[in-house]
Amino acid sequence: MARGQDPPGTRAARRRPKRSLGQNFLVDPNLQRKIAGAVLAGEDEPVLEIGPGRGALTAHLVERGVRLTVVELDDELAAELATRYETEPRVTVVHGDVLSLELASPGGDWGRTTVVGNIPYNITTPIIFRLLQLPYPRDIVLTVQAEVAARILAGPGTRTYGALSVGVGLHARASRICKVPRSAFRPIPRVDSVAMRITPHSPPRLTRSAAARVRVLTRAAFSWRRKQLGTILARHPDLNCPRDLIEGVLTELGLVPTLRPERLSPDDFMALAAALRTASFSL
Ligand code: SAM
């Protein structure tokens, strides 16, 4: 029996997966091993697993002896995991919503933590943005919808490049680990997935406040992605930048006002936000 499939007769095996919680369980043993193997933490090093479900990845991580905290929102699955691992001193089961947990407790070892999760599709973006807030964890291994992975991995000038590509690129280096076909899950979802690694920059390249400013700029730019940069800066209601200032700032950065936002790299957005601030324009 593959991990992630509960023993016949257990409560978890009898209950129906909850679609509202994005419950598609990974049942392919090779992919379970491969994704858990992408977590580079060694014995006693901290790992946070988001949405362990029936424990498809958890079992491999426990075997490796990492210091594991799992966060599961589903009442019954959290209770079953707590029972399964009650005698494992290195495993802590947290019953709760990962989006409302304090991840980086002061004095904790968040900076050394690897985060792993085969996460629900509907909360993928909020989870990623949450994980890429300062302070960062050490490394992140996530299985996400293939279409989301394509947007994260896209480079400037491509059709799928957008706010998500820039939002991740500002904080981390992203790479693809492997494709996870829909047939690897039960129940079978409507889309394929991709396992990916997102390694936050160390040291970070942005302060918290600088990151917030680039975010305002990026969101505005991609909400008007068909418009030219000069127009966006001057007319977008979240920006309203004085025209005389725009020209000077763009020239200094070697950017032309007719560029469309999808041509700007994460570094360009970062430099533009910094230059606007230097020119006394507050984002
Ligand atoms: N990791 C398991 C696997 O690969 O088989 C389960 C993956 S399933 C796609 C997502 C899991 O995340 C489910 O167990 C679901 O109950 C849990 N979940 C959903 N929303 C959550 C949240 N906000 N916080 C923590 N866990 C959540």
What's the gist of this structure?
The protein has 283 residues and is α/β, with parallel strands linked by helices. The chain contains eleven helices and nine strands. A seven-stranded mixed sheet has the order 4-3-2-5-6-9-7. Strands 1-8 form a two-stranded antiparallel sheet.
Plain-language structure description:
This protein has 283 residues and is an alpha/beta fold. The protein has eleven helices and nine strands. The protein has helices at 11-14, 29-37, 58-64, 75-84, 124-131, 146-153, 163-169, 208-223, 229-235, 243-253, 266-278, and strands spanning 25-26, 46-50, 67-72, 91-95, 114-118, 139-145, 172-180, 185-186, 193-200. The protein has a seven-stranded mixed β-sheet with strand order 4-3-2-5-6-9-7. The radius of gyration is 21 Å and the shape is elongated. The N and C termini lie far apart (55 Å). It binds S-adenosylmethionine (SAM). Residues 4, 21-26, 50-54, 56-57, 71-74, 77, 97-99, 118, 120, 123 line the site of S-adenosylmethionine.
